[in-house]
What does this fold into?
Amino acid sequence: MNALPMLGDRPTAATGPLLLENIPGLQREVRQLAAARGAVILAHNYQLPEIQQVADYVGDSLGLSRWAAATDAPEIIFCGVHFMAETASVLSPDKRVVIPDADAGCSLADSITPEQLREWKAAHPGAVVVMYVNTTAAVKAETDYCVTSANAVQVVSHILATHGPDTEILFGPDMFLGAYVERTLGVSLHVWDGECHVHAGIRPDDINAARAAHPDADFLIHPECGCSTPVLEYVAAGDVAADGVHLLSTGGMLAYAADQAGQVTVDGVPRRTAIVATETGMLHGLREAAPNVDFIAANEAASCRYMKMITLPKLRDALTGNGGAEVKVDADLAARARVPIERMVAIG
Ligand code: SF4
It folds into this structure.
């Protein structure tokens, strides 16, 4: 095994760009430091490839939180955005959760504050509050049910079935997911006017142009984050043709890749092309899992700048104690924030 680089040779979080030739050495150092601390590294699948490669587990936000709750490790280095690290802390109050860059936020989570939500609730007394998991713990603490894009329709159906068809529902903060639920169920909700900045990179015109250029390609939508939930609405509204569309969770995307990887490559030519509407970080895992599939981003510019704030030097510095920040949710707040998550999990 190679020796660790000397301190003076190290790229630090604060200095210079990370050079390609420094990546393997830094990755070795990160793994050694994590092992020495007994820490596990969790990485969201929108993280940079070199971060995903050193993680113990790569997944979507809820998968990471569940993994955090299941691990015996006392410390979790969470490579994702801040609300996700908070959710891990909410579900694992006994563990130390560290994020390599505390400024890695989320434009969607930031689009509603707890004060705004309390005002909205006061204007609609008795309404049931449904919030996407991309929210802060303080907003979750004011929420009745959390949802993901995969179960939002199911959760709202459950609320209408159990609370009555005329129940007022406050849905936020993702307006596209809210519009999709309204259209799918034929119901009217109060929908918060929030959005993720990345979605602007995945427009119907981009998608239609990519599909026209690759008419035989599969079209995969991965509505894991606010960046691609608008695509659900584009398809539901007819702005993007529904033929050949596969709506897949993170697990579904990887299952698709595993299935395709089993297919034979013909003379080195990828057997299949798939256009993917997602944040571009997801493509790394797909390409690794199925090298015989030509995965094309619906738009290469659809990149979350917050996710990309987590770099290898920052991860290393979090492990040496020279950087990063502990994310700890107050016990009372965590207890309240757990309720809507647990209700969602109980429904599906
Ligand atoms: S892609 Fe959008 S919703 Fe997801 S973490 Fe980034 S800013 Fe938030």
In short: The domain at 109-195 is CATH 3.40.50.10800 (Rossmann fold). The pocket of iron/sulfur cluster is lined by residues 81, 106-108, 134, 196-198, 225-227, 279, 304, 306-307 (CB under 6 Å).
